[in-house]
Please model this.
Amino acid sequence: MPGNVGELRALHEAGVVGFKCFLLPSGVDEFGCLDPAQLRTSMARIASFDGLLIAHAEDAASITEPAGPAYPDFLASRPPAAESHAVQGLLTETQRSGCRTHIVHVSAATVLPLLADARARGLPVTAETCPHYLTLSAEDVQGTEFKCCPPIREAANRDTLWAALRDGCSTAWCPTTRPARPR
Ligand SMILES: [Zn+2]
Model:
């Protein structure tokens, strides 16, 4: 959270396993989000005691107000690029700081090549997805009770998440990332 950098080490030593941050307004007033400078400072501090940063990876700049109240409007307002841009920024800071980074609730399959490439480069990054992203699809969503952030995406996206899970999100699964960086 903004402003608690000075408390992180003591919390870590008291047994806190990781520190979650948002990069955009969380929707909960008591849980503020970090700006880029605060993220950099926090990751440097967390890296100093080998702690774990946990990130909600959505980027405000890629998100718009929904055009209407229907689920497709909501989905279109939070495109895969919102996740990809956020993850790209987090990976840049992971490389800079060496801070262990865990990306929670990945929904967009566009994130997977970024993760595969980062892991191939040895960055200390892990990620997870969630049951609702693996079992539901936007085509089936009927009502607002399915609203979550990041959103449940299309069936093709869901199938790609499954493929990456089966494979461990390796570079073998993401051939486009393999030639990108000479080792
Ligand atoms: Zn979250």
